[in-house]
Design brief:
The protein is α+β, with helices and mostly antiparallel strands. The chain is built from 6 helices and 6 strands. The chain is about 45% helix and about 15% strand. The model has no long low-confidence stretch (mean pLDDT about 90). The structure holds zinc ion (ZN). Zinc ion binds next to α3 and α5.
Length: about 140
């Protein structure tokens, strides 16, 4: 599905490459921010090699809470984590992700993607939760 909605925009200036465990469409005009569909990343940016604010930082800023220590992560690594999450859940990823939007921000998927982008491990949300419990 990601390829089907990405390929037509190669004719209008989008660029395609294989990176971050995905087919990446850069300069994708219908997205305001990068998003993942399976092993396809659709991004409005010219490349994914950029720092973005973590979801936790955005949530803290929104609630006027003290900002966390890790405030930015690599966008490409963040989106890559979602491709691994997709590989586990397949077509169930999107409905499960949408349900987690009912939880306080950031969702477990976004928190895990930020963690993976920062540390290179822990892209699966519930493994991350288990490792947090072990530390306590
Ligand atoms: Zn994300």
């Amino acid at each position: 599905m990601g390829v089907v909605i990405g390929v037509p925009f190669l004719l209008t200036g989008s660029r395609c490459e294989i990176a971050h465990n995905a087919i990446v469409f850069h300069n994708y005009p219908l997205a305001k921010r990068a998003f993942v569909l399976g092993n396809v990343i659709l991004s409005p940016h010219t490349d994914l090699n950029r720092a973005v604010m973590t979801y936790e930082c955005a949530a803290c800023a929104k609630r006027r809470l003290p900002l966390p220590q890790v405030r930015t992560v690599h966008l490409g690594k963040h989106e890559e984590a979602h491709t691994w999450q997709y590989q586990v859940l397949g077509p169930l990823f999107l409905p499960v992700y949408l349900v987690t939007l009912l939880l306080p921000s950031p969702t477990p998927f976004e928190r895990a993607a930020d963690h993976y982008a920062h540390s290179g491990e822990g892209w699966w949300p519930w493994h991350l939760a288990a490792s947090y419990r072990r530390r306590r």
